[in-house]
Amino acid sequence: MDSGSLEPTKTRDILASFIKGVHKSLRDKCSVSENADQIWKEHCQNKQLLDEYARSMKSLATEYWNLSDEEGKKQSRNNWTKEIILDYFRNEGIKNERTREKRKIENFIHFRLPNYEYSYPELDYKLNESITILDVGSCYNPMKDIKEFDILAVDLAPGDSSVLKCDFLSVQLSNKLEIENYVVKSLPKGTFDCIVFSMLLEYIPIKQQRLECSIKAYELLKTEGLLIIITPDSKHETANAAMIKSWRLALSLLGFSRITYSKLKHIHCMAFRKTPVELELWGKLTISSLNRNQEVSNLGDLMYIPQDLK
Ligand SMILES: C[S@@+](CC[C@H](N)C(=O)[O-])C[C@H]1O[C@@H](n2cnc3c(N)ncnc32)[C@H](O)[C@@H]1O
Questions:
Q1: Residue-wise over 130-145: b if at least 16 C-beta within 10 A, else e?
Q2: Known SUPFAM superfamilies for this protein (predicted)?
Q3: Cα(200) to centroid of ligand 1, in Å?
Q4: For residue 276, how far is its CA from the centre of ligand 1 (angstroms)?
Q5: Interior CA angle at 88 toward 87 and 92, to 5°?
Q6: 166 in ligand 1 pocket by Cβ < 6 Å?
């Protein structure tokens, strides 16, 4: 795409609509096909399209999103992510969350399960010097200069030499990191302090696949590790509140506890921790607190995006 001689706002709009168009075309194809896995496979092999997407995304984010002034900094997904991760791992975040979670569980047991035997686990988080981060769908590795982070950046189509090629939907999970010719073949379970899905889930065309990504994140994180999810939305905070609530329910039922949520001008930002509370008990608490009258027959249905409904 050559848009070099156009006005900046025009170029920005062209890049943004190309990106949205790739997402839409994938969703449309999957919605009329019996074989969404095949559509996804074909998409992953379309090198020309993926490379153009990577160039467009990098250009949009680094040249056209104004992030240099004070307001821009406040609205930046990378600044939000950095602040939340550092607060959680380097300040009192883990300790505060344990206290909050313990209190929540104890209240729940007291009122709903008075005969239940339970003690909140003794925890001792082992953090290496750097915070290990798996940035899924990283594109150009936007957080690579943050010195506290040790980032494994992966993408279908790397937009920077520091990013390894990997389809998160099909990559194997095992007990070690395996890389062949800059392609990730397998990721180690239970080893990451933090996983970042920054503007990833709305690219994934099917609700069930979004759930699969979330399940993989759960398996790859250490207990008490963080999952950061950023998803674009320029509407008012309340416009898609039902979707945000629905994702929270799905992720809670997987064993995540939401620790914070912010609506910035163009994005929703969420951080979840992998709770150390046993899943059966956590599920009961989730159903009682978040799911008062909703029937959940398929967790995948909860991971919808507004575009699925169009
Ligand atoms: C909208 S871009 C976001 C880039 C970056 N995270 C950011 O915040 O600027 C979405 C990225 O997710 C990548 N992606 C989508 N599905 C993926 C998958 N299954 N595995 C790895 N990367 C994926 C795309 O190639 C694309 O680079």
A1: ebbbbbbbbbbbbbee
A2: S-adenosyl-L-methionine-dependent methyltransferases
A3: 5
A4: 29
A5: 80
A6: yes
Residue 149 CB less than 6 A away from ligand 1: no
Do residues 137 and 197 lie in contact, with contact meaning Cβ atoms separated by under 8 Å?
Answer: yes
Of 23, 25, 155, the one to substitute when testing ligand 1's pocket (max ligand atoms within 8 A of C-beta) is 155
Q: Of the candidates 201, 200, 198, 192, which has an alpha carbon nearest to the alpha carbon of residue 220?
A: 192
Which range (64-78, 155-169, 245-259) has the least confidence? 64-78
What is the token pair recorded at 192? 């990451």
Asked whether residue 300 is marked as a ligand-binding residue, the answer is no
**ipTM of the shown complex:** 0.99
**Do residues 258 and 270 make contact, with C-beta atoms less than 8 angstroms apart?**
yes
Average of per-residue pLDDT across 17-29: 95
pLDDT score of 134: 98
DSSP calls for 39-99: HHHHHHH-HHHHHHHHHHHHHIIIIIS--SSHHHHHT-HHHHHHHHHHHHHHSSHHHHHHH
CA of 25 from ligand 1 middle (Å) equals 16
pTM of the model: 0.95
Give CA–CA dist 310/308, Å, rounded: 6
* 155 labelled ligand-binding: yes
Classified by CATH at the fold level, domain 76-309 comes out as: Rossmann fold (3.40.50)
